[in-house]
């Protein structure tokens, strides 16, 4: 889910951010699955320092057109059935498994350090231009966020959303396409609006979603 | 007297064993490298992303990082490498003539090069293969949709017969447009004389950047030939061969274990046996290679794990943006598989 980093920035050095999140009882049960680790200075430097911008307009047409995060067909060996979604959090890619060792790959924005998770869920609901109701744990962390925002081009949830299991996490669009390829969200997976519009009809409710994270030492 | 005799024999046998091993070791590449104080690494004369000199005159790239990882494993210092730029024709001779210790120069591992030239490939650092760069005008997603296309192919290369074979196998026709160089192919694509260019995928990603409108071209996922690239050594020194091979494996194992630039300093404190062996806290594997116990960590400290090395030089953090594809870990949809360190 989109959110603002600047709140956490005040508590640097970054170890404090996690402590803060823990004190405030952050996130859902799934988030607790991923081991919390103090971000290294290096990881912090590559973190994009940008907050949500509710009201900023991004249309359905915006796609990532060039570079590695552009939508493209890639070679992908997998034991997962075609149609399955595989998300590699550390790589910042979402793969839609296709037959014949192929996958359609989309660049995504993922949870910032401490907000990344892995697991196996299903798409339980789909919505076009979804409303945004930041969950209580996000409001606790970022009290200035709106309690509710109606769907539309200025909504941080973007053009489409696919709800993951019973978690607070979604695969959704964004009104900030420049954040694709970054680790800045609260655990959601965001695609540029044009790309999420492309993915949406390919993913029926019930689709298996595998979220993978790099090994922890 | 008899007791003395047995002792004497034993002493003689031990002495001979010691002398024998010392004799072998002194002829070894590792000892020569250590004595010289630097690793002599054969690289290309300039290939973007793999080995080229940057503006400051320093060698950079994927193949260069393999040299740096080796130097770090041996000396704890990745800068102790002297680079020897080699042309395709002189590269194997230079290795055989001991002008270099290891060849890390986008060379394809083939039967002939091992059996006939007396070389050993230490492993596959990069799985390359012939692919297709197609203009987006037609929404092509696989090479099987290329029937009837005008295809640019470089004359006098193995890519030309590969192309013919692929189309024949799949009962498709195409119009061949012969070009003399990759630059010529880019010109032909810009002018619309051909819709598709076929070459090794690594080259296609580099050439795409030279197009007038790179966004209008896509590189198809299909790979129609096997071009496994990796470092090569002389076949007469298995100890050195093992060192190069296991340094390469270490980079792959590091990615699988989650040991990267950000976590390398925490690795010795890990509770996981795999990670502890890798870090040299347990097992004593460094000594078996003739290196310090932290050799594997030193290599990762220098260049990161395989994934980091890939992304930085040719992957999503570089201007080429080559997808991992086959060069992904076996557990993540690729074919990279390194034996365990135990």
Automatic annotation (TrEMBL), chain A:
Assigned keywords, A-Z: Cell shape, Cell wall biogenesis/degradation, Glycosyltransferase, Hydrolase, Lipoprotein, Peptidoglycan synthesis, Transferase
One Gene Ontology biological process: peptidoglycan-protein cross-linking
Keyword Zinc: no
Record-annotated active site: 172 (proton donor/acceptor), 188 (nucleophile)
InterPro entries: LD-transpeptidase, LD_TPept_cat_dom, Transpep_catalytic_dom
Domain of life: Bacteria
Gene Ontology molecular function terms on file: glycosyltransferase activity; peptidoglycan L,D-transpeptidase activity
Gene Ontology cellular component annotations, sorted alphabetically: extracellular region
Pathway annotation: Cell wall biogenesis; peptidoglycan biosynthesis
Domain L,D-TPase catalytic residue range list: 83-212
Similarity field: Belongs to the YkuD family.
Protein name in UniProt: Lipoprotein-anchoring transpeptidase ErfK/SrfK
Protein source organism: Enterovirga rhinocerotis
UniProtKB/TrEMBL annotation, chain B:
Top-level taxon in the UniProt lineage: Bacteria
Domain Solute-binding protein family 3/N-terminal: 38-267
Gene3D superfamilies in the record: Periplasmic binding protein-like II (3.40.190.10)
Any single biological process term in GO: amino acid transport
Xref: InterPro entries: Bact_solute-bind_prot3, SBP_3_CS, Solute-binding_3/MltF_N
Keyword Transport: yes
Membrane-traversing stretches: none
Signal sequence residues: 1-27
Alphabetical UniProt keywords: Signal, Transport
Pfam families noted in UniProt: SBP_bac_3
The keyword Cytoplasm is assigned to this record: no
Recorded family membership: Belongs to the bacterial solute-binding protein 3 family.
Descriptive protein name: Amino acid ABC transporter substrate-binding protein (PAAT family)
Species this protein is from: Enterovirga rhinocerotis
């Amino acid at each position: 889910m989109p959110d603002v980093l600047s709140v956490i920035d005040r508590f640097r050095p970054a170890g404090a951010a996690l402590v803060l999140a823990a004190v405030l009882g952050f996130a859902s049960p799934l988030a607790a699955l991923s081991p919390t680790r103090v971000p290294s200075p290096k990881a912090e430097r590559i973190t994009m320092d940008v907050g949500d911008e509710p009201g900023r307009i991004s249309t359905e047409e915006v796609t990532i057109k060039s570079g590695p995060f552009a939508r493209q067909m890639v070679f992908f060996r997998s034991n997962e059935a075609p149609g399955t979604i595989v998300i590699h959090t550390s790589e910042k890619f979402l793969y839609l498994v296709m037959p014949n060792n192929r996958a359609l790959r989309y660049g995504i924005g993922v949870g910032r350090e401490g907000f990344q998770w892995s697991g196996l869920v299903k798409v339980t609901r789909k919505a076009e231009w979804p409303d945004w109701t930041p969950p209580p744990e996000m409001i606790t962390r970022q009290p200035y966020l709106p309690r509710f925002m109606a769907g539309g081009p200025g909504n941080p949830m973007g053009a489409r959303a696919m709800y993951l299991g019973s978690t607070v996490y979604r695969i959704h669009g964004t009104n900030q396409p420049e954040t694709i390829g970054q680790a800045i969200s609260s655990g959601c997976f965001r695609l540029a609006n044009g790309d999420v519009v492309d993915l949406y009809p390919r993913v029926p409710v019930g689709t298996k979603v595998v979220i993978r994270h790099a090994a922890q030492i | 007297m008899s007791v003395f005799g047995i002792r004497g024999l034993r002493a003689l046998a031990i002495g001979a064993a010691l002398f024998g091993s010392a004799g072998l070791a002194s002829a070894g590449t590792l000892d020569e490298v250590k004595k010289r104080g630097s690793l002599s690494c054969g690289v290309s004369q300039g290939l973007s992303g793999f080995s080229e000199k940057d503006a400051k005159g320093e060698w950079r790239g994927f193949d260069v990082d393999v040299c740096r990882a080796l130097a770090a494993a041996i000396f704890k210092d990745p800068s102790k490498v002297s680079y020897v730029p080699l042309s395709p024709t002189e590269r194997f001779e230079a290795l055989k003539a001991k002008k270099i210790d290891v060849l890390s120069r986008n060379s394809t591992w083939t039967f002939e090069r091992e059996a006939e030239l007396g070389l050993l490939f230490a492993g596959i650092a990069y799985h390359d293969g012939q692919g297709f760069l197609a203009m987006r005008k037609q929404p092509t997603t696989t090479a099987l949709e290329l029937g009837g296309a005008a295809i640019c192919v470089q004359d006098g290369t193995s890519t030309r017969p590969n192309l013919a074979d692929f189309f024949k196998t799949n009962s498709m026709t195409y119009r061949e447009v012969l070009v003399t160089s990759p630059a010529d192919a880019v010109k032909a694509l810009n002018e619309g004389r051909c819709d598709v260019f076929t070459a090794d995928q690594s080259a296609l990603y580099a050439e795409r950047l030279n197009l007038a409108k790179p966004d209008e071209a896509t590189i198809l996922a299909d790979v129609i030939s096997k071009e496994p690239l990796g470092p090569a050594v002389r076949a007469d020194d298995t100890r050195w061969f093992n060192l190069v091979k296991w340094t390469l494996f270490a980079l792959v194992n590091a990615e699988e274990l989650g040991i990267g630039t950000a976590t390398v300093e925490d690795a010795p404190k890990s509770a996981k046996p795999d990670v502890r062996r890798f870090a040299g806290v347990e097992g004593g594997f460094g000594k078996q290679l003739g290196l310090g116990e932290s050799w594997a960590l030193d290599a990762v400290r220098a260049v990161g794990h395989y994934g980091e090395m890939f992304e930085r030089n040719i992957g999503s953090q570089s201007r080429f943006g080559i997808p991992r594809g086959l060069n992904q870990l076996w557990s993540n949809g690729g074919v990279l598989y390194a034996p365990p360190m135990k």
